[in-house]
Write a structure and sequence with these properties.
Binds 16S rRNA, required for the assembly of 30S particles and may also be responsible for determining the conformation of the 16S rRNA at the A site. Its cofactor is Zn(2+). Belongs to the universal ribosomal protein uS14 family. Zinc-binding uS14 subfamily. GO terms for molecular function: rRNA binding; structural constituent of ribosome; zinc ion binding. One of its GO terms (cellular component) is small ribosomal subunit. The protein is mostly helical and 61 residues long. It has one domain: Ribosomal Protein S14/S29 (30s Ribosomal Protein S14, Chain N), CATH 4.10.830. The protein is 30% helix and 7% strand. It is built from two helices and two strands, in the order H-E-E-H. Strands 1-2 form a two-stranded antiparallel ribbon.
């Protein structure tokens, strides 16, 4: 879990665009970020298993 200071610092306006770091909207995690959903892999998996993300189903073959 990201510290509050890092999350607040990431929200500030930076001088250069490439200095921004994608962070999970729910927990603030920076690694394992999924661009399509705007969250980290851990939050994505937990919400997908609960069925709270529309259009995402568990695969089976």
């Amino acid at each position: 879990m990201a510290r509050k200071a890092k999350i607040v610092r990431n929200q500030q306006q930076l001088k250069y665009k490439n200095r921004y770091r994608n962070r999970c909207a729910l927990c603030g995690r920076s690694r394992g970020y999924l661009r399509d959903f705007g969250m980290c892999r851990i939050c994505f998996r937990s919400l997908a298993n609960k069925g709270e993300i529309p259009g995402v189903t568990k695969s089976s073959w």
